[in-house]
Design brief:
The protein is of the alpha/beta class and 258 residues long. It has one domain: Glycerol-3-phosphate (1)-acyltransferase (3-Layer(aba) Sandwich). The chain has helices at 14-17, 22-40, 67-74, 92-104, 116-130, 155-163, 175-178, 211-229, 245-252; strands spanning 43-45, 56-60, 81-84, 107-110, 134-137, 167-173, 193-196.
Amino acid sequence: MTSEDAPEPREADPQAASTQMGSTYALGRVVVAPLARLLYRPRIEGKANVPKSGAVIFASNHLSFIDSIAIPVAAPRPVHFLAKSSYFEGTGLSGWFSRGFFAAIGAVPVQRGAGQAALDALDQQRVLLEAGNAVALYPEGTRSLDGRLYKGRTGVAFLALQTGAPVVPVGLIGTAEVMPVGAKVPSMTKRVTVKFGEPIDLTPHGPASSGRARRLATDEIMAAIHALSGQELANAYNEVPAQSPMDRIKQVLPHERR
């Protein structure tokens, strides 16, 4: 896909996107979130910047597995995010616990991957936004293993321009210390800071079909995240290691990183 070509969105299944909260998520908001705030005492700044209703996209830096727990716990309204479908597919007691936990914190199962899988994920998020929900996304695409802030991919901007949803930038600080890569349980001695920035209206950049509009909107989002997180800038994309010679060729060729 060239930078000027917009993807043709496929029709997503509203039930698969789980736009209805359900009793498990309601229980999570009442029990899990307050308990997490009590145990981990997160510092939360900028709650007043979060719109109380209507579609909104939380766009955050990504440092740790617990980022997707920290944002719903800190946000003053329900938040959905996408999680690997494997978290919902386990069997036995552990599978039951995993499904219940991720449902309780607002996760929606999705098949992870590139190509069509990535477009399907965008469709699920679009359905959530069109139903007036809040979703949390990571423009970097994957966790930063060195603590730097990487360049943003344009999928978040595409969704914002397509749906008209405002973007609330989020700066997470300390999550990598609370639960580093490879850790089984989060530390009880470290604290997380969650900063919500002022909502950004990206519509002046142009339509979602414009590659230039998507790139400029993404750069504005990443600048706002950087102002909140204070991370060193990597000035590069956080690429998944290439698995084949063809993957390496694709990474160096010009293309829009969605």
